[in-house]
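FORM 7B: Structural annotation worksheet

SECTION A. Query
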Amino acid sequence: MEPFLRKRLAFLSFFWNKIWPAGVADPVSDRELEPRGAEFPAEPGSPPAPARLFRALSDFRARCAGELSVSRGDWLFALQEDGEYLFARRLSSPLCTGLVPITCVAKTSPEPLSDQPWYFGDISRTQAQQLLLSAANAPGAFLVRPSESRRGDYSLSVRAQAKVCHYRISMAEDGGLYLQKGQCFSSLEELLSYYKANWKLLQNPLLQPCMPQKSQEQDQWERPRSEFVLRRKLGQGFFGEVWEGLWLGSVPVAVKVIKSADMKLDDLAQEIRTLKSLRHERLIRLHAVCSTGEPVYIVTELMRKGSLQAYLGGPEGRTLSLPLLLSFACQVAEGMGYLEGRRIVHRDLAARNVLVGDNLACKVADFGLARLLKDDVYSPSSSSKIPVKWTAPEAANYCIFSQKSNVWSFGVFLYEVFTYGQCPYEGMSNHETLQQVMQGYRLPRPPTCPAEVYVLMLECWKGSPEERPAFSVLQEKLGDISRCFYPTCT
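SECTION B. Predicted structure
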């Protein structure tokens, strides 16, 4: 081996003279190894010959200048094989050549993974979940990606209804690939073919490769998280925290910070899609989203006075006159009328989800529970969180939501407005509230509430959803009341 190394790596002559003084023969072999087949691939982009391609089975750290450090999973092109060592070129960056123990590598054949529709080479576990749970993919969609926890392994991610299952594809000592020990395959394609036919071993069928979404660069809403600085926590809800922040160091914004553990990924994707599609002066305006990685940011305009519930209960809110309270009611009815026209049900309309700006403009916010209705009603899973005291009885009992259940919630919202943010059904548990409502109990008229407005509240709380008014009617009647009582304020 000495002559071969001296010839091929002449620049290390000082090192070779140290370990092989002149006149001492190579103890492994005193013959010169012919560099047969030692050429690199003809073109930088052309694939290596399969017989010369190896993969590192374990990490190896060079012990001297002639050896090559490799990490598990590295691809190597063999320049020369000789007994216990492989003289190879590492194909991953940085490109280097050197000696690697033959026990650390295994001969393999190249797989053009980038050409496979099921291979996603640069996404994380969270991104895989978001892709598979997107509207473009159905149960049975799958993808393969590099393992985040173990270099050289892969992960198989499969959509199973409303969740994603992840399976590690490990590399065996001989370079083969397996999901279950004892069932080894020479390639990912061979492995996937087997589990497509024997999907019961995974308990999830592999039906079609995951459909990719358009690149984030094409999405005008997607911005890097580094553009935003969080300054002050404003509040916390079911699905995350809300912060006051700065965009690009100068634009004040509100940032909703969401972790995947706090919200289902399909619910989160739905919230983002809903916000992007809505444009109305009485609805909170979306500025940007950061949906790559965690936590997810939903960035909206900043309403400096915070939620209407907190504002009404504070020193400034408690001094507000009835004309301003009526103005709040009219503004929210207008925003909900827009949602009604778009066939969107909010499912969590309450004073805490209405935000107030410096000029006392009100905007409906928090679409974490919003849904676009294909029919007249929407029935979520029984595990959904429901704000019982604001929820219509048919929705609380049977999880059937509609525009008319939104109207019921608007009646409770009016009660909050005219009690300056007081909690409805105070002193009652959720169970007691629902029982009382089913028996015909209705919230009493607040002392500051005009009788005409209380009549509208009772209409919102009709037991039969069909008897409740539309938001367009509520907006018109509230406007008439405001003009009748306070003509100079409208």
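SECTION C. Observations
The first strand starts at residue 53 and ends at 56. The chain is about 25% helix and 20% strand.

SECTION D. Sign-off
Analyst initials: ____
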